[in-house]
Every structure is written in structure tokens, then in C-alpha cells.
Amino acid sequence: MANMKEQKGLRREAGLFQVVAYGVGNIIGAGIYVLVGAASGLAGNEIWLAFLIGAVVALFTGLSYAELAAMYPKAASEYIYIGRAYGNRMLSFLAEWVMLVTEIVAAATVSMGFALYFQSVFQAPVLLVAAALLAFLTVVAILGIKQSLRVNMVLSIVAVIGLAIVILAGSHRFGSVNYLQGAGTGITGVVGAAILVFFAYIGFDNVANLSEETKDPGRTIPKGLMVSLAITTILYVLVGIAAVSLVPWQKLSTSDAPLALAASAALGSPAFDILTAAALLTTLNTTLVLLITGSRIIYGMAREGSLPGVLGTVSKKSGAPFVASIATLLVAFAFLSLGGIGLVARITSFGSLLTFAMVNLSLIHLRRVAPHLKRPFRAPLSIGWLSVNGLIGLVSCLALLTQFDVQSVALGLMLPISGIIIYVLLNRGNVLAVDRKLHEPHERVRR
């Protein structure tokens, strides 16, 4: 254990290819394989438009993350960005806490999805399988980022192949249906579907949390983030078009395995089995990247002094934050069997959009109050100090936040409320303090 504590920081092992693979693996996950059905029930044949709306929000917010990640290449990205902008530790803590809880809740829920698939084949207890999967993947994460990224890369390729099969299966039927025919609810249905499928985009922000383990992060992270978003947006739109071209949206909306159903409509039962296997491995990959991200957030917050310092311990042998990884596992255990993926997707999207809005606002604020800061990557579209892409990202996040149902809002608001409680417990007597350390770069980083 003593040797483990001697490692001072994370190892820079990842290049551009690994970052892109990690980004694609983060974004393409259980969401696209499961939520296409529910989303088509809201948007009908216009599901492709719902994916485009989600992509717009992700793109402009992603540009904000890219600029901020290049400025501050650290783990616990949202904590750093908001802290550097406003110098308020409590605000930073709440933003990162919301992201942390959503990541871990999503990891627990997706592991349950894996277990349900697994049970259908092997008749194994769902909770036991989910817990075993979480424990196994935590071991993989503790072995080190290089090993984790190798597993992620292989499983990301499987995920992309699965989507490519659906696209190729439906390509000969492109144009066979009216892609402007909704589900009868107009733009409301499309927006509702966009909220749902936005869960399938969440993960692009996690690329920033890889900054301390990336070579030349000021250049590599922005490139990797943008390329990851471009690849997944193209795939998602084509998958949406292919799915409704192969199977009527009414039938897709009632299926538990909509993409497997769509592929089998053109290629027969073997395609159903192949897509089911791809969905199973993709779900496993999603769980892995969520656990990695959760542990990096905990590690980063501990190194910033907002969580107990022991959580920032790094293994000298593997270079991984092993204590934070174990803590992530234990919290994920507590959230097993929380609920269905639809509800969790909405709660996760709500919490993520809250944080994304704050990140966009932080970029705008830093452009105004600290124009002298070095920016290895600068997002385009500016009017003077005003970042237009940050403003569009902020407005789009706020617009989507107004469209959630009451249950999702109520449960989503529990995320920052729980963060306030934890923060107060950890910082009794110093709750509203402004952290001068967070503003240090404003004074010492110049062009």
C-alpha cells in the first residue's frame, strides 16, 4: 500500500486515437440500443430530427468543453471550469456532484440492463450478475488506463459494427417512408424524443476527464472530443433513418430490442442474435467507461480538497486512482435496481443539462473577465468577448430543461439538493467561503 501512495499523479498514456475511441465508447452505449424504440414512439419517423436536436446541444456544449479542457487539462473537469470562473467552491462542488451521481447511477442501471440480457440466456440472478459485472469492471479500471482503454477500444469497435449492420440493412430502403411524418404530437413529440435520446449523447463531456492521462491534452482533448461527436452524430442519424425504414415506428416503439428487431427485418434471425450480442457488449462497455469517469471525478475532487484526501490516492504500479475506483464501486452497489432505463435516462439528462448550462456560462464568463488566459484551443463564433457557441449551448440546454415532465424534474432536483447536504457536512463552518486558489490562473496565466 505504501508503494501505491507514492504515485503523485495519473500517467499520460492516451493519444488521439485512444481519446477518440474512449469518446465514441462513452457516447455510443446502452442508450442508442434501447432508447430508439421509446423515442420513435414520441417522434415517429422524425426520430432522425430528434437525434439532430440532441447533436446541436452536444456540439455547442462540446465546443465549450473543448476550450475549457485545453485551458485546464485536469480530472473533475466541471469542478475546475466552474471554480476557475467563479471561485466558489460550493458552486463547483454542486456541479461536479451532480455529474458524479448521474454517472454512478447510470453505471448501476446499465449494469442491470446487462444482467437482464444475461438472464435471458443463462437464467442467472439479475442482482448478482449486475454486482459481479461492476466488481469485475472495477478491477479492469484499477489495472490502469492503458488496459482499460484497450478493452474500451475493442468494445467500441463492436458497438460501431452493430450500428453499421443496422445502417447497411436499412440502406436499400432509404426513402421508402416519409421521414417528416411524426407520431401525431407535432414538435412536442420530437422535443420529447430529443430529451430521451440526449442520454445517448451524454459521455462526450467525459473526454475532458481524461485530460490528466492524455499526451498533449491542450490539443488532443479538443480534437478527440469533436471527432467523437462527429462520428456518433452521423451514426445516430443514419441509424434512426434506417430503423424506421425497416420497421414501422409503431412496432419499434413496443420493442425491448428495437435495433435487433430492425436488423432482423432485413437479414433474418441471425441478425437479431448478432445485434443482441452487440448490445450486450456495448452495455458492458458503457458500464466500464461510466465507472472510469466516476472514479476520475472523485479523484479530481479529492485532489482539489473537496472530498477526503485518501480518495486521491493513486497506485504507483498501475497509475490508476484505486481508492476512488473502489468508492465508485461501493456507491454503484447502493444504486442497483433503482429503476428502468427510461426514467434513469431522463434523470441523467436533466442533471447533465444543468451542469452543461453552468459550463457554458463559465466559458462566457471567463471570456469576459479573463481574456488574457492562454487558450490552446479557442472555440469559433465570437462577437468581441462573447462566445456565441457558448451562448447557443447555454440557451439550448435551458430550452431542453423546460421540457421535462414533473417526475423527472422532481427527481432531478434531488441531485443538487443531495450535493448541498454533502457539502455542508464536509465543510461545516466554512460553507460559503470563496476559494482564492481557484482564481490563481487568472493572475499567473498570460498570453
DSSP summary: helix tally: 18
Q: Tell me, what's the shape?
A: globular
Count the E strands. Answer: 2
The largest sheet, given as strand count, sense and whether it forms a barrel, is: 2 strands, antiparallel
CATH architecture type = Up-down Bundle
CATH topology: Amino acid/polyamine transporter I
**Spatial gap, N to C terminus:** 42 Å
One letter per element, helices H and strands E, the order comes to: HHHHHHHHHHHHHHHEEHHH
Unreliable sequence segments: 1-7, 443-447
On the 0-100 scale, what is the average pLDDT? 83
In short:
Helix content is 71%, strand content 1%. The chain has 447 residues and is an all-alpha fold. The chain has one domain (10-428): Up-down Bundle (Amino acid/polyamine transporter I), CATH 1.20.1740.10.
